[in-house]
Structure formats: structure tokens, C-alpha cells
């Protein structure tokens, strides 16, 4: 049961303009997704910059991924219990702290610690979606949620050329000073503009459940993200993967037997929620396949690629983020007219079209630009529909945790894509000017796998129920189209 529901709605009427709230939460979402592409321009140079082995510097990326996956569902639950705005502020403060640590660190240890703290900020996206559900008029909920959801792709796409520009004209530490300043600005805006959360869930926080989820997810994600480097059949990878799975099974058994679990798995097991989360894994895989394959072929020297600079390549990728942002109001209106399930199917179809186009046409730079625009359409529609599919199927007290769980499933898809596509491109390579580069066949397989992920997302989404019983529909969301 929620507390304060009688006075909650009246207090929500005394707040800043809804447009300002949406803008600030969208900026928070952009800032969080920017963290994933922040170090892309310097990734290849990290061993030299940090005086460490390539295996050690891989933790600069892996640590952010792990922190994001673990903290997102936990932050959602904390937001439901202690106030979503409060937890958003905590996460933004963590981003600033992590950025400062990385900015002043000359070596690998400080940078990895800083990047770990930066990864935790990913939880602001599902929390922001839940805040919008709490404070907006129902006529604006759909388009606002679409905008916040799109920031998970927009920030990465637009952040890449910004990172490239910073590193081209400044020292690499400037990346972290910029992220610290950005985090501080967003913290101040949230503090001043976003209203205090008054819709909360009673109960005690499940610390043991949080620890179990963290250990289990860390094991599985380590196996997935580092399997290509450590060897998929190596004892370390097998121990991480199998051990993580065992811990998650024990965690699930425990969560089903306590009074106030971290995540209500009975709600998560509802058919619409479960199928939406499974479709999210496949869509996350399809999205990140393009993030791995397209930049590489754009940057590789001829004849393997097009020989573009990092900045030029990122400018080919960036329009997909602009498409996602421009589509957000359209996504909200479409969700009201055709329903979020149909919107998801449109998104998956656009991704299938993108990879199909690339398989047929990839000999010119403009071919990849067209494909990236289709990727933007697919992710813009797909990501916008996911939280609406989730929130119309969970109780009011579970929105933060349920959206956090959905974001986790998307992270599982992107993590798997990074490992699988990376392994495919590495295993099918030839020597070119003394350097191993992927073959044309390797890229074709990457496009096939990305398209396969989009097809899987579409097929799974076909089985998501279109209608829900009134008691399952979220009270702030409009009736689904008949």
C-alpha cells in the first residue's frame, strides 16, 4: 500500500510547469546515457594513457556496464520506497563524484573506480519515467515517457561526436571534467524544478535481496562481457556464468518467500511484463549490434572500411539520436491511437529494415547513414513503448522497480551484443598493414545477427496481450485502444 495518497495529488498541483519537469528529466537521461560513449574516443589508447595492459583497461568500460546493470533495478526500488526525486539526486551526486575521481586520477585504479560510480547514474532514466507518471496530466504522459525513453539511445549517439571533439582538442581528463560539470548542472536543475516525490511504498528495504541480485548479475555479465578475452570455456568465465546463474536462482527463491522483496517476481512474471522484458533483451541486442559494427566499418582503412576519422564516423552515427528525439512526441501520440504493442512492432520492423538494407547496400558511406536513420526510428518507437507496456501491467507501488528491471533486461541485450558481435568481428579477420581487421563476411554476419535480434523482438512482441484487466492498468495511463 502507498502512503500519503490522499494529500499526494493535492501537493502535486503546486509544482513548476510540466514542460520544465520533462526537459530536466530528459537532460538527466541524456547525461546518463552519455556515460556509455564517454570514453569511446580514447578506448584504443587507454593502455598507453593509463600505463596498463589492454585487459586491465577493458575494465574502464566493463565497470560502467556492471554498475549500471546492478544499480538500475535497486535504484528503482529505493525510489519507490524513499522518493524518486531523492534517489535521482543521489545518483547524480554519484555521477559527479565518480567524474571527479576519474578526472584527477593518473592511473587505472582511480579511473575504474570513477567509471563504476558513473555507471550508477543509469538508474535516473526509469526513475524519471516513474516521476512523469506521478506528476503529469495523463494527456502528456505518453509523449513525455517516449522522450525520456529515447534518451537512452540519444545520449549515446549525440555524445560520441562530443567526446571525439573534446579529445581531439584537449587532454583526455577533460572528458571527466565535462561530465562532472554536466552532472552538477543537472543536479541543480532537478533540485530546483522536479517536485518532491510523495507517492511512496511502505516497507523495509531488502538488503539481502539487493546483495544477491548484485552478485548474480555481476557473475553473468562478467562472463558475457569478458568471455571473448578470457575464453568462453575458461574456468574463470564458466565459474562467473554458472555461479551467477546459481546465485540468481537462489535469489529468486528467496524473493518469492519474503514479505517485502526487492522485486515482486510475481508481478514480473505476469505475461505482458515478462514478454515485454524478453523482447527488450532482443531489441537491446539489435541496437548495440549497430553501435559495435557501424563505427568499426566507418573507421577502418580501405579496403576493409571507409577510413573516416572518429569524429567523422560519429557524425554519421549521430543522426540516429536526432531521429529518436524528434520521434518522441510522435511516439506518444501513436501509443494513444494504436497502442504501445503496435508501436513496439513498428520499432522492431524498422530495425529489421535497417539491417536488411545494410545487407543489400553497404558500399557507400551514405548507405550506413540511411541504415542509422532507420535504427533511430526503430529504437525511438521501441524504447518509447516499453515503459508504457510495463506500467499498464504493474501496481502503482511497483513502477520504479519494474521500470528498473526493464532497463536491466535492455542492458543484458546490449551486453550480449557487445560480446557476441565483438567475437564475430575478431574471429573473422585478416592481416592488413600488419593489423588484424574484420573481413566483409564478418560484417555481414554482424548484420545478420543484428537483424535476427530485431526479428526475435518482433516475434516475442506479437504474443504480448493487447488488452489488460482494469485492475492491472496503471491509474494514470489512458485506456488502451480497442
From TrEMBL:
GO terms for molecular function: transmembrane transporter activity. Residues 21-469 form the Major facilitator superfamily (MFS) profile domain. Signal peptide: none annotated. The chain crosses the membrane at residues 20-42, 57-75, 87-109, 115-132, 144-166, 172-193, 205-224, 236-254, 274-294, 306-330, 342-362, 368-391, 412-431, 443-464. It is found in: Cell membrane. It is a multi-pass membrane protein. Pfam families: MFS_1. Keywords: Membrane, Transmembrane, Transmembrane helix. InterPro entries: MFS, MFS_dom, MFS_trans_sf. One of its GO terms (cellular component) is plasma membrane. PANTHER family: BLL0718 PROTEIN, MAJOR FACILITATOR SUPERFAMILY MULTIDRUG TRANSPORTER MFSC. This is MFS family permease. It comes from Microbacterium invictum.
Amino acid at each position: 500500500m502507498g502512503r500519503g495518497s490522499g494529500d499526494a495529488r493535492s501537493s502535486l498541483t503546486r509544482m513548476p510547469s510540466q514542460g520544465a519537469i520533462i526537459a530536466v528529466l530528459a537532460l538527466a537521461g541524456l547525461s546518463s546515457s552519455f556515460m556509455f560513449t564517454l570514453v569511446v574516443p580514447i578506448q584504443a589508447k587507454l593502455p598507453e594513457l593509463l600505463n596498463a595492459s589492454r585487459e586491465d583497461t577493458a575494465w574502464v568500460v566493463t565497470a560502467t556496464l556492471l554498475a549500471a546493470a546492478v544499480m538500475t533495478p535497486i535504484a528503482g526500488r529505493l525510489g519507490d520506497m524513499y522518493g524518486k526525486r531523492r534517489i535521482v539526486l543521489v545518483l547524480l551526486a554519484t555521477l559527479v563524484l565518480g567524474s571527479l575521481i576519474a578526472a584527477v586520477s593518473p592511473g587505472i585504479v582511480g579511473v575504474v573506480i570513477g567509471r563504476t560510480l558513473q555507471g550508477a547514474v543509469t538508474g535516473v532514466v526509469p526513475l524519471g519515467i516513474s516521476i512523469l507518471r506521478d506528476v503529469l496530466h495523463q494527456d502528456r504522459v505518453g509523449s513525455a515517457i517516449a522522450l525520456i525513453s529515447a534518451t537512452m539511445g540519444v545520449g549515446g549517439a549525440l555524445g560520441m561526436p562530443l567526446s571525439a571533439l573534446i579529445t581531439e582538442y584537449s587532454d583526455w581528463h577533460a572528458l571527466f571534467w565535462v561530465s562532472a560539470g554536466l552532472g552538477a548542472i543537472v543536479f541543480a536543475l532537478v533540485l530546483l524544478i522536479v517536485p518532491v516525490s510523495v507517492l511512496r511504498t511502505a516497507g523495509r528495504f531488502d538488503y539481502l535481496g539487493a546483495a544477491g541480485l548484485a552478485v548474480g548479475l555481476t557473475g553473468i555479465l562478467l562472463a558475457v562481457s569478458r568471455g571473448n578475452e578470457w575464453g568462453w570455456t575458461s574456468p574463470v568465465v564458466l565459474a562467473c556464468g554458472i555461479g551467477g546463474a546459481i546465485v540468481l536462482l537462489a535469489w529468486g527463491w528467496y524473493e518469492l518467500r519474503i514479505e517485502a522483496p526487492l522485486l515482486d517476481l510475481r508481478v514480473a512474471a505476469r505475461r505482458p511484463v515478462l514478454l515485454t522484458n524478453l523482447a527488450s533483451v532482443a531489441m537491446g541486442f539489435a541496437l548495440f549490434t549497430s553501435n559495435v559494427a557501424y563505427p568499426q566499418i566507418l573507421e577502418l582503412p580501405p579496403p576493409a572500411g571507409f577510413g573516416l576519422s572518429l569524429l567523422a564516423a560519429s557524425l554519421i552515427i549521430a543522426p540516429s539520436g536526432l531521429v529518436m528525439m524528434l520521434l518522441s512526441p510522435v511516439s506518444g501520440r501513436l501509443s494513444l491511437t494504436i497502442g504501445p504493442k503496435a508501436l513496439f512492432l513498428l520499432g522492431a520492423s524498422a530495425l529489421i529494415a535497417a539491417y536488411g538494407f545494410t545487407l543489400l547496400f553497404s558500399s557507400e558511406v551514405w548507405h550506413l547513414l540511411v541504415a542509422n536513420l532507420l535504427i533511430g526510428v526503430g529504437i525511438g518507437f521501441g524504447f518509447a513503448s516499453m515503459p508504457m507496456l510495463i506500467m499498464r501491467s504493474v501496481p502503482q507501488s511497483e513502477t520504479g522497480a519494474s521500470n528498473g528491471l526493464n532497463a536491466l533486461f535492455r542492458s543484458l541485450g546490449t551486453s550480449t551484443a557487445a560480446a557476441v558481435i565483438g567475437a564475430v568481428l575478431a574471429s573473422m579477420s585478416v592481416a592488413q598493414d600488419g593489423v588484424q581487421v574484420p573481413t566483409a563476411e564478418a560484417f555481414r554476419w554482424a548484420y545478420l545477427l543484428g537483424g535476427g535480434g530485431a526479428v526475435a523482438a518482433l516475434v516475442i512482441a506479437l504474443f504480448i496481450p493487447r488488452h489488460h484487466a482494469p485492475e492491472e492498468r496503471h491509474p494514470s495511463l489512458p485506456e488502451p485502444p480497442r
